[in-house]
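Allow me, if you will, to draw on your knowledge of protein folds for a short while. I have a record of one protein: its chain in single-letter code and its fold written as discrete structure tokens. I remain grateful for any guidance, and I place the record below:
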Amino acid sequence: MRSDFLVIGGGVVGLSIARGLRRTFPSASVHLLEKEADCGLHASGRNSGVVHAGFYYSPDSLKAKFTWRGNRLLTEYCEEKKIPLNKCGKLVVAKDHADHAGLDELLKRGRANRIPLEEISEKDAKAIEPRVKTCERALLSPATSTVDPSLVMQAMKKDAVDEGVQLHCGVRYLGSSKGQVRTTHGMHEVGYVVNAAGLYADRIARDYGFSEHYRILPFKGLYLYSSEPAGSIRTNIYPVPDLKNPFLGVHFTVAANGKAKIGPTAIPGLWREQYGGIANFHWGEFLEVALRGVWLMTNSNFAFRTLAVRELAKYSKSKMVSLASELAEGVKPEHYQHWGKSGIRAQLVDIKKRKLEMDFVLEGDQHSMHVLNAVSPAFTCGLPFSEHVCERIKAVLN
């Protein structure tokens, strides 16, 4: 096979970049490799489905730049494709007075990023969600919504094909040399490679001389699903997060069908695709990830040991219910007995600075571009972020 552009990875970012390349270089051939039988079977199809508004992120970040625009573009896309959206909004609540400073910071960031965000009273919060718990104040994000991510992925896959992207599902990247990519279906001659491989992005990047100081650390996300009727919780309810790490804490998500779930966890994985049991187990990955985890226990700059202990406790349903009960009334253990399918967050770690990367990370040159960190809210940001990647590629090729 031969192509002008080869995208590796068929998640929301990979598909969006492939579509963007077709628009940016209309006379070029664009092919996409996806090792699974279909697109979007990893993080893109297993995420919460929340269409974020973007008020968590510092104004100088790429996440701040792309999330609000991504919210608008993805909302328009879903409406155009008639994909159901639950425009239920989001409440960020305070457990106590100490959380008020966090609410103030989020409000400050929201205003700096020009995002609709309202400071409301406890009474107003209860009018929106009668079961909510908050200490005197809360924030309302009216533009936050939820969608079934698998429906979005199938629509984007169809659009990619209709727009001329050549999809190769069930084809795995094996290596590269001298303008060629080796795959499970033979050699592929390539003009330019775009690596959007998620959990394996760092490995592929090292084949091209990048990701020298970066490694992917997998974190498993699990949700507990409610057996209560749809509408029992009306809106997404989130705690004030610790803005020093990229995880938002256990919260209520109201899915597109109106049913609630609590989570997610952020449990350190033992191998890259540790979805359940020993599926996808690899000794090499286990040793690599486990040794890195042990090293981070004593050498990280983000309290990895504390994070790991706290998150491992969330394997307990009672612990999850206890945390969720801080946000809403009437959270009963008998209503939360079913775990949903797990997702894996491909979180980038700077092993030189010993810290988690909080923002999107790109590295590349005139031969290849590597999306090393595209974690939440990448599902929301996929459309404008892909435009940014294509602009970077166009700049280095001109």
